[in-house]
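User: what does the whole thing look like in 3D?
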Amino acid sequence: MRNRERVLNLSLALFNQQGIAHVSTLQITTELEISPGNLYYHFRNKEDIAKALVQEFDQAVSRMRSEFSHQVNTLDDYPAFLLSLMTLLAQYRFVLRDLETLVLGEPDLKRCFGHLYNSLKALNQAMFDHLNHLDALSIEKEDQRFLADNSLMIAIGWINQLSMVNNTDEHTLILRQGVSRLVALVQPYLKLT
Amino acid sequence: MRNRERVLNLSLALFNQQGIAHVSTLQITTELEISPGNLYYHFRNKEDIAKALVQEFDQAVSRMRSEFSHQVNTLDDYPAFLLSLMTLLAQYRFVLRDLETLVLGEPDLKRCFGHLYNSLKALNQAMFDHLNHLDALSIEKEDQRFLADNSLMIAIGWINQLSMVNNTDEHTLILRQGVSRLVALVQPYLKLT
Amino acid sequence: MRNRERVLNLSLALFNQQGIAHVSTLQITTELEISPGNLYYHFRNKEDIAKALVQEFDQAVSRMRSEFSHQVNTLDDYPAFLLSLMTLLAQYRFVLRDLETLVLGEPDLKRCFGHLYNSLKALNQAMFDHLNHLDALSIEKEDQRFLADNSLMIAIGWINQLSMVNNTDEHTLILRQGVSRLVALVQPYLKLT
Amino acid sequence: MRNRERVLNLSLALFNQQGIAHVSTLQITTELEISPGNLYYHFRNKEDIAKALVQEFDQAVSRMRSEFSHQVNTLDDYPAFLLSLMTLLAQYRFVLRDLETLVLGEPDLKRCFGHLYNSLKALNQAMFDHLNHLDALSIEKEDQRFLADNSLMIAIGWINQLSMVNNTDEHTLILRQGVSRLVALVQPYLKLT
DNA sequence: AATGAATGAGGGTTCATTCAT
DNA sequence: GATGAATGAACCCTCATTCAT
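Assistant: Here's the predicted 3D structure for the full assembly of 772 residues, as structure tokens:
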């Protein structure tokens, strides 16, 4: 049962670096020093590994959704929460980057992708609802929807910037820049107190 | 010389539909009813086709950049311009979607991608500079940079939405939705007149 | 000791449906909800299962051989006996169908196949000898040998027809058709009384 | 275009010796000293090779059907014709032996098999019709149908005997024995002249 | 008797690319 | 400009079998 997790861990790292398509099952098994058959004992095929990771991701997003109403009590908590969200997205960035697979992949994997996207949207919407509740924002219903859409896309877009940079040291810098943009997005709607 | 263009045209369509990696050179040659050798007479390799398309795209972006200061004279012209820009991005959407290739591709193709991204950023920046000049926006320098970044990401993000929908009829609808979000992004900074 | 029989029973069913080569040991163990190791505790390898079934079959044939001189007392008993024989062959039809394994299998399994074929031939020969004894046939020695050969091949050939039909309801029909042909084969040699 | 035929020739030999399933594409390409890709340039997959051979076989059977009414003018010509037919069947004996593939194969290959079987049945029926026409047989309609069925099964059954013998020298002997049985089958219905 | 993770050889197939004509 | 047969490396995956527990 150990090897299953080792495969997941390594696959996550390799998928993030190179993309699902460019990671071969042989590469995974060779680096882990296990037999190809062992990988296929734990997973039906390569997509099955991706599916498991997407589901892990999905659960983490859902967990974050249920936690954040406790963590964010004033507007000052918002940036810190965004950073932890962005950090999570960065951890599974191969998912957000690989639309090709999303479009053309097996229906099974496609469904998982779809579910994850909905989780992300839901989290985003809930976030703005909460901020509204805290009486931190002054914004109309329609505008809030647009804001939520834009917010998600900027978050994803900024995560994708990570993939263009090999140097891991710059990653935290980029994440902070992303957070800045997301904060700036809300700026105009802040309620003056 | 005819076949070169036919390859480019079909490749663009197929790349948009399926992604570079999922389009084989054999598929291209078969659909065009030409020989594989013929394709390789016109292009050094598959990436070479992609490169040519990226450059086409890049030039179209640059052309748009030089045109838009004539086309946009008041804020009312902005949405129409955005729509034509989005339409262009949609035409070459495989480029904006396929970060995998950008990350792992040959340095040659990578450079072309990079140049295109810079062109897009430049166009975006220039757009906001122009709007500022027209005295339509009231915005600080720093905020303007953030706005430009966000604007580009939302545009790209919305283009990627296209790829998740097979129905081509919905495409124009999605493009309009994208424009709405981009307009909404600027809304808070409009100068009241 | 229970599981050994369960493996044999399921294997027989699966071998008949799909052929030895297309049934994996994993399929057997999964359907029985036992571990692969358990299967290999009871059988040295997959062929060993087949061998056991062939031997079961062989014994059933031999038993039938010793019984039939009691069961067939007049020519009128012949069709009923043929039907019970055909039913037995149908039960183990994977054996009669799979000449590939016979040709290329391990010598051990090959020997079992060979022994079974001899049992079948012997049963057939004995059948005609008996009919002759009953004074039901008028046939020369040489013709009788040919008749026995032909009879066996038609029986096997008709059993193989079963495998081409998925619908189990038709099986009894096909068996009856086979019996008809076998009876027709003897028709010309009946003694007029 | 040469290699296509070489693949077909060698595959026929290997399929007859070892059965489709036990012949690997690598074995074929290695023995022919061509690349695996070359084989897949000429054939879509391994079954495609088998399909081509079955169709070859089918055509040969059909050709024989149209020829035999010229070749068989008296009953004395019958054995010679049977021998040439048996020789043809022997040439493609892997087809008649491999019911496993017939049962479980792709629908495409299955259809080809089915067509071939019909051709064989048609040839057989036509044969007996012709003999009847020549006024060589005295047989009733119903009996003739049974005779035709039995004849085909004996022919196939005897061809399968070939596969159990490695020594190629014995093959002609076995073929002759098969012919003898087939002739013996008709014996009882000969018209006395 | 039984488990189940692990092995590893082997097989079918794809595809970008070359090159003689 | 164009053809199309040929290459060969690479990949995904299967499955009979083993063995420590």
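In plain terms: Chain C has ten helices and no strands. The CA atoms of residues 79 and 183 of chain C lie 7 Å apart.
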